[in-house]
Amino acid sequence: MQKKGGNSHEDKSCDIGFIGLGVMGSMLTMNLVDHGYRVACFDLDQNKVESILAKDASERAENTEPRVEGCSSYTELLSKLKAPHLIIISVPAGDPVDHVCNHLIDAGIHADDIVVDTGNSLWTDSVAREDQYKGKFIFFSTAVSGGEVGARFGPSLMPSGNPYAWTRIEPVLKAIAAKVDPETGKPLESHTPGQPVLEGEPCATYIGPVGAGHYVKMVHNGIEYADMQLICETYHVMREALHMAPAEIAEVFRRWNEGKLNSYLMEISAEVLEQMDPETQQPLVDVILDRAGQKGTGLWTAVSALQVGSPAQTITSAVFARSISSLKDERVAASKVLAGPDAPSFSDDEKMSIINKLEQALYCSKICAYAQGFQLMAMAGKEHGWTLEFGEIAKIWRAGCIIRAVFLQSISQAYENNEDLANLLLDPFFAEQITQYQADWRESIAQATLAGVPCPAMMSALSYYDSYRTAVLPANLLQGQRDYFGAHTYQRVDKPAGKKYHIEWSDPARPQIAIKK
Ligand code: 6PG
Question: What positions does UniProt annotate as the active site of this protein (predicted)?
């Protein structure tokens, strides 16, 4: 290997270069070292480099060699890596990714070196980057889910890009990924530094050409938005219509978490609701401002659903729910002007019955949100020429990621039983589940509506279900309207598909014209 001019740091002992040592980057680095990789690290902020060195020193066994090497430049980082170089970056999506890539080019990266982007990048940016950096290095993308703890002890990974690069990266990503017990679909977890889980099925699978992995992660986040919003709406009904205290609701969520709703989001929601504010000693949730933030991935999912023409109204409703939450001042003003129904009151038995129904409502809505996400991936996959393996995607979401849930085992089973499944709702298991629980679902929404408690995601899920199972929708009238004002034509149920007609609406005789070609 050729020496880079005058670089005194050159020792080529590191397996992986890591750039970007924010929360996710530093945790991924520590995960890598736990699996025996020696990592050269760089961040524009040298304090972060110092911190990761200190973290390694505090976690490794006494009298052992450092597992992390700090670097003060891109050139130094490259000089410490075994060739061909493997560099993982964790920087904010957008320009910072290109900033890093361009600095690596200036520092002398080679054509067969691999740069893996692990940020929440827009999938189309990943596609453009593979092309843009061709000949300079191999740009590969690996979407990561799991937040800080996932990154540290096992995230869910959605890699995509050059298949040759995948063969080089696969062992690394499969080592650091979350692991699942293949029989039960439950996560195998260890949160002890230096003692990673080595057995089980890794939550990392090759998704497809570059961009596909970030697209799948984007949809994961869209589903995450819907899942979170549905839990929030359920909480809201219990809070406002049933007048339950946060701790009481937490107890219900904990109970549900032991059954078919078992999931990470359910578990953390109970914990959030139980938390007291150290300052006021009130439930913390009551002092958290009801204005939701968002970084954009849910919005991207909603935009993509609209562009692809895939009905994903529960995901979209969840994005809009965040938008309306941020109109706080307007809502406060409107609450003084706009009337709602009188607050209902319920006996203890009625309350218990509504709570039981809400569990089924949340479950059925959740099935619809996932059905929408998978349908969106299927339609987008077709459009972009990706062969997405939905059974495998559901499998890598069983652990490590934010939407991890027991429920994903049933989804992977559904696609394994029928890889051409057009919609999750048509899987015999899920179809039966909704048949069994739909009366409770409808009743819960009716109760919420009568009490004036908004539940946009839950309602949209039910509308999705009802629309999807309806053979004749009112789009017949809609086509009539379009033809009336714009001569946009319509097709007939009793004539060959594709054959178009128009009525001369302004002519008293209303003659129908068959449109040629
Ligand atoms: C994950 C999360 C993670 C993050 C998103 C969503 O899978 O680990 O989805 O990517 O939480 O950025 O954040 P917003 O709610 O701010 O859009």
Answer: 217, 224
**φ and ψ at residue 256, rounded to 5 degrees:** -60, -35
Decide if pLDDT at 5 tops 50. no
Per residue in 305-342, pLDDT (tens digit) is: 999 999 999 999 999 999 999 999 999 999 999 999 99
Instruction: Kindly report the length of the chain.
Output: 517
Among all chains, which residue has been given the structure tokens 């061909």?
A: 84
Q: What are φ and ψ of residue 513, in 5° steps?
A: -110, 130
The closest residue, in CA terms, to atom 4 on ligand 1 is 147
**Rounded Cα gap, residues 44 and 221, in angstroms:** 28
Residue whose Cα lies nearest atom 2 of ligand 1: it is 145
Say whether 310 sits in a helix, a strand or coil.
coil
4 pLDDT above the threshold of 60: no
Q: Are 237 and 447 in contact (CB under 8 A)?
A: yes
227 lines ligand 1 (CB under 6 A): no
**Of 412, 372, 375, residue with least CA distance to 390:** 412
Tokens (6 digits) for 211? 């961009």
298 CB near ligand 1 (under 6 Å): yes
The annotation status of 225 as a binding-site residue, yes or no, is: yes
Alpha helices in 246-283 (DSSP H): 246-256, 264-274
Please work out whether the CB of residue 295 comes within 6 Å of at least one atom of ligand 1.
yes
Question: What amino acid is encoded at 273 in this protein?
Answer: L
Say if ligand 1 is within 6 A of residue 121 CB: no
Lookup result for tokens 């939905």: 390
In this predicted structure, what is the pLDDT of residue 42? 98
For the chain, domains (ranges, CATH) are 16-210 (3.40.50.720), 214-468 (1.10.1040.10), 475-516 (1.20.5)
Q: Is the pLDDT of residue 366 over 60?
A: yes
Q: What is the residue whose two structure tokens read 């009743």? A: 443
Hey, is 97 helix, strand or coil?
Answer: helix
Pocket test for ligand 1, best of 221, 228, 263 (most atoms within 8 A of CB): 221
Query: Contact, 390 vs 415, CB < 8 A?
Result: yes
**Which residues, other chains included, contact 427 with Cβ-Cβ below 8 Å and sequence gap of 6+?**
414, 417, 418, 421
Q: Known binder of ligand: residue 37?
A: no
Q: Between 6 and 214, where is the model more confident?
A: 214
* pLDDT band, residue 11 (cuts 50/70/90): confident
SS3 label, residue 339? coil
Hey, what are 161's tokens? 């890009």
